[in-house]
């Protein structure tokens, strides 16, 4: 009880006063700490109530109806709760969630994550799939998680690359696509770790978002997800800082 109280007070102290990601009108927002959004079945009838329950449906808290669903019972991640923290845990066998969602030329996606296992490339924290003009955030090496954003058809001359092995480490990662400015950036814990200046073709408008799977719905990633959001804008530095702080608090970290 004392641990949970300590965490709550710390999180309240570090969060921007009165801020929530919904203030920025996200396209989608998923927060496993809100049990009212988690269900064990695809229809959303059987609620998740306890640590260890499987999760087949996750409601979108943005109000836009972009609810995540596992394609089978076998593909369900598990709800976990410990020490005042909450997350979805995905195995490396067959767990992933997906939803059809619009792609927008200006775009920011943010995840509070921890990769647990990685044996090769293409094991993705998340992906957007439209055959072309899409991307995935994937492991870049065996037994490590050097994250990289691998894009298709958007004009980028290479990968957005992280050079730090983050396997088994909590972090908040953002991909920001700014078609107006022509830039694509990978931002981790509030710091730009990679940026390209040749983003010339916007995301395809018809995407499938997958959590813990790549664009082909294969190579599932063993990982934790504490929160995930998508914005149909290239967030400003100040906006992204607020989101990053809020997401970090979901992991029990002060950012």
Q: Which key features would you list for this structure?
A:
255 residues, mainly beta, Jelly Rolls
Class in CATH?
Mainly Beta
Number of strands: 17
The ordered H/E elements are HEEEEEEEEEEEEEEEEEH
Mean pLDDT value: 91
Radius of gyration: 17 Å
Estimate percent helicity.
10-25%
**Ends: how far apart?**
24 Å
CATH architecture classification name: Sandwich
The main sheet comes to: 8 strands, antiparallel
- Give the helix/strand class: mainly beta
CATH topology: Jelly Rolls
Number of helices: 2
Percent of residues in β-strands = 35-45%
Instruction: Describe the global form.
Output: globular
- Low-pLDDT stretches: 1-13
Q: In the residues, how many domains can be counted?
A: 1
InterPro entries: ConA-like_dom_sf
Characterization of the model:
With about 260 residues, the chain is mostly beta strands. The chain has a single domain, classed as Jelly Rolls (Sandwich). Helices cover about 10% and strands about 35% of the residues. The strands form three sheets. Strands 1, 5, 6, 8, 13, 14, 15 and 17 form an eight-stranded antiparallel sheet that branches. It has a six-stranded antiparallel sheet with strand order 7-16-9-10-11-12, with no helix packed on it. Strands 2-3-4 form a three-stranded antiparallel sheet, with no helix packed on it. About 45% of the residues are buried. InterPro entries: ConA-like_dom_sf.
